[in-house]
Structure formats: structure tokens, C-alpha cells
Design brief:
alpha/beta; 15 strands; Rossmann fold; 245 residues; OB fold (Dihydrolipoamide Acetyltransferase, E2P); five-stranded antiparallel beta sheet; 25% helix; five-stranded parallel beta sheet; 7 helices
């Protein structure tokens, strides 16, 4: 790839910026345009330079990385670099390329860059000495989880394991690959915590996992042998999302 990817670092921690700067310097396809400590500096940099990729921290003074990203348009590609796992779902909804948890190892950094290079139709990829020869790509989504309060205990649920969510008036039933969990929460509130690229509301009482769909029609969706009805008011969005004609 002849054109280098122009990078911007936004992080209020000097050491964190220094680490990413060093990593960028070690990769020929990347070019560091600016490294800044807050969102205002970052906004000025984006205004005055062509930026392809932002390495963005989340917890910063005055304006968080999440809010900063929502305020800029058009949005460059973003890789979040943070010490907090709590914002992974929201980052996923904002279509971030990756979500790196500090301390960030170079091998993990390389995997993120590989994603960028593939999106840019690059012919060369980088691999780490620690990677397996098959170079299987890690999916951050596989590690995203939520907690639901069930009988005074917080139950951990990985999003990748959820088949569907069913509304039971003031409660919801979450059906996973291995169990059912009932919690006091509205389905609309729960829907707001889920990545829209992975979950789809198909009925006033049902949200389904797109990844677990076995078959579907205009009237029902089947997941692992379980049939979920498609509501009349949701048919259009189901067709649009799943590409049914």
C-alpha cells in the first residue's frame, strides 16, 4: 500500500501517548500526524489535517472520547485505547474498528492494524511472533458481557451467547445457549445496551441475536430450533436488516 494511514492520538496520559507513538513508528503503513492530550486539541487537528485513523482514549477531562466521537463528522476510523471495559458495547455501536484495553501489547496493537489494512484493501499484513501461523483474528465482541441482577446477585452474560430476549411485562427473559435468566428490566431499556449490528427487535416482545439465526421468513425467525414471531410493525426493518426480498 503506497499511501500511508494518517494517525491521530488522543489521550490525556503522556505515557500512553508515548507507547502508541512508538508502536506507530514501528509500522511502515502508519504516519503520525499529531498526538494530543484532549478533545479540543483533537478537534483542531482534525479540522486542519486529513486524519484517517484516531487512537482515542475514553476517560479524559472536559469531554470523553465517546462524546467527542459523537460530535465530529465525518468520522475517521477509530480504535479506542482505554483502561475501562465498561464502554465496549457503546464503542461497538459507534462502529469503532477495535477496542484495546490498557496496557496494550504490541502484538494486540498489530491485530488492530491488520483490520485497518484489510479494510483499506492492503496487500500486506503484519503478524506478531506470538501469533499462530493460521493468524486467526480475535473478535472483541466475543469478550463483551453484561450483568443482570437476578435474586440479589449480578449474573454475568456474554452477548455472543444470547439467542433472544423476551418481554414479560416488567421483566425480561434472556435465553442464552445454555440457560434462561429472568430479570426485572424493560425490554426497551435492555435493547439500548445492545449493539444494533448484532441484535434486532422483531416484535414488541422479542429481540433476537442476528448471529444465531438459522432461517427466517416474513412471519417468523428460527434460532436453534426456537421459532420467534415477527410483528407486523417490525416486518419492514427485518426485511431491510436481513435482506429478505
Amino acid at each position: 500500500m503506497d499511501t500511508k494511514i494518517k494517525c491521530l492520538i488522543v489521550d490525556d496520559e503522556p505515557l500512553a501517548r508515548e507507547i502508541i507513538e512508538n508502536y506507530i513508528d514501528r509500522i511502515d503503513h502508519l504516519e503520525l500526524v499529531h498526538s494530543c492530550s484532549n478533545a479540543l486539541e483533537a478537534f483542531n487537528s482534525i479540522t486542519n489535517h486529513d486524519i484517517d485513523l484516531i487512537f482515542l482514549d475514553i476517560q479524559m477531562p472536559d469531554l470523553t472520547g465517546i462524546d467527542f466521537l459523537k460530535d465530529i463528522s465525518p468520522t475517521p476510523k477509530v480504535i479506542f485505547t482505554t483502561a475501562y471495559s465498561d464502554y465496549a458495547v457503546e464503542a461497538f455501536n459507534l462502529e469503532a474498528i477495535d477496542y484495546l484495553l490498557k496496557p496494550i501489547e504490541f502484538s494486540r496493537f498489530l491485530k488492530s492494524i491488520n483490520k485497518i489494512l484489510k479494510l483499506s484493501k492492503a496487500h500486506a499484513t503484519y503478524t506478531s511472533d506470538q501469533e499462530d501461523s493460521n493468524n486467526k483474528e480475535e473478535t472483541e465482541y466475543d469478550n463483551i458481557f453484561i450483568y443482570l441482577k437476578v435474586e440479589k446477585k449480578m449474573q454475568k452474560i456474554f452477548l455472543k451467547d444470547i439467542l433472544y430476549i423476551e418481554s414479560l411485562k416488567n421483566y425480561i427473559k434472556v435465553r442464552t445457549l445454555e440457560r434462561e435468566i429472568t430479570a426485572y428490566k424493560s425490554i426497551s431499556t435492555f435493547q439500548s445496551t445492545l449493539p444494533s449490528t448484532k441484535f434486532l427487535r422483531v416484535h414488541r416482545s422479542f429481540i433476537i441475536s442476528i448471529d444465531h439465526i438459522d432461517s427466517f421468513s416474513t412471519s417468523e425467525i428460527e434460532l436453534k430450533g426456537i421459532k420467534i414471531p415477527v410483528g407486523r410493525n417490525y416486518k419492514a426493518s427485518v426485511k431491510e436488516t436481513l435482506g429478505y426480498y
